Amino acid sequence: MRSSPLKYAIYVPTNKPIFIDTARNGRECNCICAECGKVVDAIQGERNEKHFRHSVETDCKGGLETILHLRAKQIIVENNQIELPGVGLNYTGAISEEPFLKVIPDVTVIANGEKVFFEIALTNPKKKIEKEFYIANKLKSVEIHLEGLDYDIPQDELKRIVLINVNRKEIIFWTETSKGDGLLSMKISRYLVPIALLAIIYKLFQSWSRRR
Questions:
Q1: Do 169 and 81 share a structural domain?
Q2: Are β-strands 8-11 and 16-19 bridged in parallel, bridged antiparallel, or unpaired?
Q3: Where do the TM regions start and end (predicted)?
């Protein structure tokens, strides 16, 4: 991931990433650094490339990976469809960083009445212990790999990668829901009960026939 001028910061009123081209100039941008939380100014002069700059001198690099991570999460939260390996998923109720038992998934959504968890990897895959948690508890979960992307990748391209590109997605755990098995059992029972009744009636008829 290359180093480049800071093109994204956190817009304070919404607490969401904002691109330099859509921010107001100077201190009026009302933004802070995603990494250190300090005030940044929008530098939008004609001589230099547009970028955000810390208002005071600092060693902070601007949280390049943090910004990309936030943008990816926000894309999932603000949409309701995502392509996964072998399946297209419609979802609702997406929320980021909601604690669940022992983990804090990057994004949690609701699909077909159950939770699905998304993890976003930028430099390293999620820790083995986190994956083992999802597998052990049979929780539908997916890891989206964004390794190697420039942090200031255009938003439309990042959206395509997060929502459509299945090659960067890894299924951690996925199985058909028990609800589906329950529906199947109900359908089978619907036919088994009449058959059982017919068998009882037949036995009663045989017994009555012998007594004649």
A1: yes
A2: antiparallel
A3: 188-205
Which DSSP category does 211 fall into?
Answer: H
Q: Quick check: helix, strand or coil at residue 182?
A: helix
Q: Are residues 70 and 140 in the same domain?
A: yes
The answer to whether the beta carbons of residues 158 and 75 sit under 8 Å apart is: yes
Q: Which domain holds residue 193?
A: 178-212
CA distance 129 to 86: 25
Q: Which two tokens stand for residue 152?
A: 């200031």
| Tokens, residue 84 | 């996964």
pLDDT digit string (tens) for 102-115?
A: 899 999 999 999 99
SS3 label, residue 28: strand
> Structure pTM?
0.74
Task: Give the separation between CA 96 and CA 108, rounded to whole angstroms.
Answer: 6
